[in-house]
Amino acid sequence: MEQLTYTPVRITTIKSNRKVSFPVYIFFKDQYLEYVSPGNSIEKEKYNKLRKQKITKFFIKESDEDNYQQFLESFIEETLNSETASVEEKTEVVTGMSETAIERLADDPASEASFDMTRKASKNLQKLVFENPESLANIFGQDSDSGPIIGHSLNVCVLSIKLAKSKKVSDEEIDYISTAALMHDIGLMERNKEEAKLFELPKDDLDPAQRAKYNEHCKGVIELLSEKPYINKPIIDLIESHEENLQGSGPLKMKKLTLPQEILSLVNTYDKTCFTKKIDPKTALNELMIDQLGNYNLKLLNDFKALLKEEKII
Ligand SMILES: [Fe+2]
Ligand SMILES: [Fe+2]
Description:
The chain has helices at residues 44-52, 65-81, 87-107, 112-131, 135-139, 148-166, 171-183, 186-189, 193-198, 208-226, 233-240, 259-277, 281-291, 298-310, and strands spanning 6-10, 24-28, 31-36, 57-61. The protein is mainly alpha-helical. It has a two-stranded antiparallel ribbon. Strands 2-3 form a two-stranded antiparallel ribbon.
């Protein structure tokens, strides 16, 4: 009998009332059951029920991957260009694609298809955030049902590209920042649960042994990515330096950062402060302005503060 392999996809990327050209499965009682057959769509009522039941994933056959990507591409393009779709709807489909892409990359960081999906997701996030300013608040500060690291990666992505835009960073570099931001912590996700737990603790609370373990997430994954010709060097450099600062106390002890590197690191520190200390965005910013002085340029810290005010985050 043919051995089928299934790939998870977030249900927000399939949507109701939209015909699929491939079978969609749910995983129930240890088996994959065909839930939607090709040429059909999911009724809205059924779809809402699944979401209420907190079902977050469908499955597709691995051999249908190209069909799924085509489906998703046209669905997202239509939604993002639609005059009737709400910002919430636009946000949901783009974050669903981003979450699916990050999850897949964490499973296999070297996969070209997953990298490609991440790159496309980051393009869509840029379009979403730049064309719909309200979407920032829809993403930032929302719990992601795909877990804290993915939620954090999305926050870092949207805030970094906004800050980069305000600092007049080139479109090409914004593109690199957005992809790197989605990928930057996959090194933590692919490690065992205990190490991923360190992500949830404030950095200053880590003892030297824990800190050394935590720092490994910047290095291990880089070796793997560096061998892949399809991953651009600027993206790898950004991921590698995302925990560095101007005083050289990061894992690689770098003291010089390019503006894109400094932006990614600053936003990463800020979002981690909000998350690990469970404090509101304004309190986190006040702490950042004091604790990180010297780690980042004062001008950049002030510009970041102005951006958060403008976006009504603080
Ligand atoms: Fe990190
Ligand atoms: Fe991070």
